[in-house]
Specification:
The structure is a homodimer. Chain A is α/β, with parallel strands linked by helices and about 400 residues long. Chain A folds into 4 domains: about 160 residues, MoaB/Mog-like domain (Molybdenum Cofactor Biosythetic Enzyme, Chain A, 3-Layer(aba) Sandwich), CATH 3.40.980; about 45 residues, Molybdopterin biosynthesis moea protein, domain 2 (Alpha-Beta Complex); about 90 residues, Molybdopterin biosynthesis moea protein, domain 3 (Molybdopterin biosynthesis moeA protein, domain 3), CATH 2.170.190; about 70 residues, Beta-clip. Chain A is built from 6 helices and 28 strands. Chain A has a 6-stranded mixed sheet with strand order 7-4-6-5-9-8, with no helix packed on it. A 6-stranded mixed sheet of chain A has the order 16-13-17-21-20-18, sandwiched between helices. In chain A, β24 and β25 form a beta hairpin. At the A-B interface, α2, β15, α3 and β24 of A face α2, β15, α3 and β24 of B.
Chain lengths: ~400, ~400
């Protein structure tokens, strides 16, 4: 029998016992949102590729404006006009200027742009500059933003809309991403019926199948839901073997009776190696983890609340490991609305509602003994009370993991 | 000319000038993740629908265990066994008990369950109970979690994986959700080329089209990207009219030159009503908002960094309003890694990286004058410095909106 492990030990186990699958594919930019970048993106070109003005106004030589004022404008001859989207293929000599729009190219010889608000057009081919301009002012130089060789994005990043914008800017319209990890989900329990069935006496609907499928899909996995298997070791073994063949990882939930948990352990041992039997958290203790080659085989608690916490805290990081995902998650800091006791010895997980009040974020803990729906529906996330803590007072700050 | 409005005024404008579209559809549970719930979900049944044990052990009458101990066990006759997923259609009389698995139904007459660890099977049809049990102990009663009439989820909620689980539990496999809002995205600018083209002299790639498309799709909108339109008032008018006919909202970005901004205003006025010309934020001031009927017509700044901030702060709430979405967003509290100046008079928005260090979350601000890619790629979010603030010291707490 393996010992119960702490959450930190479980996360270390995930890092040491599993390695990234390393399968990648190229997707068009329009399909890259939320995918895990497979390679670092290195700029091949300059952005912008030419010196640009950041204002509407006149490009000129800064030195020609030194000492000018409203009272004594610098008078410059307008020798050209830059059109948006066209090159400025002329050069400015001393005491000349050229009109440039915001974002327009800057002609050679110019080293600043004066905002149109500080100029006066005399209508005779000259303009007056009312305010001196320093060299470089109101310009973006070629490569100011990015130049060739610069790393734009790291591999392992989950691409955001903003990353998509940056990739568009450098013309990266085919993006190397990690293939979605394929996960098999099995629910077990003689008492389970599908969600669209009406439960008979002693029966309940399968919650973990739909819940885990949605959670893993939202994380970027491809899920095969194998449905419900009754508590029969041989049937369970067959189903797990099929799932392990078709998928990169298998998650079985339920089977909370002692006999079935032991059966799951035996099946995992027969398929590979048992790594873990029990995590020191509440709820979520009866969690099993093993592997067949590099394929994780995971047994989650049957109670949906517990299954959901364990999935978010350990299964998602494990799938992230398989996908080479290097992104950190961030928690929301909130203030507890009421005091809360805790059993020390095990980390205690508590679901909560979040609300904005008076410029603060408040966490209102869910209290429920059975708590299937109460702990899931309409809830914003959960927080963890550390194992050395005997409870938290009202007003304590908690770090909330968002659902 | 309309006055520049504060962010609070813009958000109030959105609430008062636009109303929810009110179009709904039913989707299967497996497609409901991330959708906006159109109606409150009210439970029609009891969950659980029967009294259940939360432990493996023996169901019995609590009174029969009072006063027992290791030394003087209470001896009870085993008169039945409950099978998982089946009803317990027998009743317990005084000094009898029945084996129940975790989650199993409780026979009539029993009012507690004793954990198997505190019992001893004498092998002669009797068991000894070593520890007294209070009435109700280790039981979940019918409807403890949910009973008919209870509101499970509010309309306007964006459905999470956990909500999907709760809906499965009550057998709600067809879910009423708000139809996706359809948004037309137009990029304008003579300097723009599509992301897959190589920019010529004076040209840059269109960033806002792909960026806004991804951002709005991630929010749950359906996006039609109308591509790039050159800075020509008549062409722009035609394109905006087509988009307004085909979509529920139109967003045009770019056209940063004064002439084109004025053209956008004229077009919006000719199509309906101009509501806003300028927001007191930096960057993002040259934002335009109007409407044709209940259809928002929005002009975003051409600079992708600014367009992105304005889209996240104002366009998403506006689309949320159209979708009847009632969800609050939560920010991540982080500590500034360096001091930062601010121009008072306008709210200043600053992109940042986030990192975990020593149990704290740190925000490292992006500093960049041009900042197209630097402000977008690999960035975690942004924070706002209020308009009365002249700057923030290193170590100040900021509220970060995640990308």
């Amino acid at each position: 029998m393996l010992e119960v492990k702490t959450p930190e030990e479980v996360l270390r186990l995930i890092e040491t016992k599993f390695k990234p699958l390393g399968r990648t594919e190229n997707v068009p930019l329009s399909a890259a949102l939320g995918r895990v970048l497979a390679e670092p993106i290195i700029a091949q070109e300059y952005v912008p590729d030419f010196d640009r003005s950041t204002v509407d106004g006149y490009a000129c030589r800064a030195a020609d404006t030194f000492g000018c004022s409203d009272a004594i404008p610098a008078i410059l001859s307008v020798t050209g006009q830059v059109l948006m989207g066209e090159s400025a293929d002329f050069a400015l000599s001393r005491d000349t200027c050229a009109y440039v729009p915001t974002g327009g190219a800057i002609p050679k010889g110019a080293d600043c742009a004066v905002m149109i608000e500080y100029t006066e057009d005399y209508g005779d081919g000259t303009v007056g500059i009312m305010k001196p301009c320093a060299p470089g002012m109101n310009l973006i130089f070629r490569g100011d933003d990015v130049s060739p060789g610069k790393e734009i994005l790291r591999n392992g990043r989950v691409l955001t809309a903003q990353d998509i914008g940056a990739l568009a800017a450098i013309g990266k319209t085919s993006v190397p991403v990690v293939c979605r990890v394929k996960v098999g989900v099995i629910s077990t329990g003689d008492e389970l019926v599908p969600p669209d069935a009406t439960p008979g006496p002693g029966q309940v609907r399968d919650v973990n199948g739909p819940l885990l499928t949605a959670l893993l899909e939202a994380f970027g996995a491809e899920v095969i839901n194998y449905g419900i298997v009754v508590d029969d070791e041989e049937l369970l073994r067959q189903k797990m073997q099929v799932a392990a063949q078709e998928c990169n990882a298998v998650i079985i939930s339920g089977g909370s009776s002692v006999g079935v948990k032991d059966a799951t352990c035996r099946i995992i041992e027969s398929m590979g190696e048992l790594l873990l039997h029990g995590i020191a958290i509440k709820p979520g203790k009866p969690t099993i983890m093993g592997k067949a080659g590099n394929k994780p085989l995971i047994g989650l608690p049957g109670h949906p609340g517990a299954a959901c916490f364990v999935a978010q805290l350990f299964v998602l990081p494990l799938l992230g490991r398989l996908m080479g995902r290097k992104q950190e998650g961030f928690t929301v800091t909130a203030e507890l609305t009421e005091s809360l006791g805790a059993n020390h010895g095990r980390e205690q997980i508590n679901a909560c509602h979040l609300l904005h009040e008076g410029g603060k974020i408040l966490a209102s803990p869910i209290r429920s003994k059975s708590g299937l729906i109460t702990q899931l529906a309409g809830v914003d996330g959960f927080f963890i009370i550390s194992r050395d803590c005997e409870g938290l007072p009202k007003g304590a700050q908690v770090q909330v993991y968002l659902y």
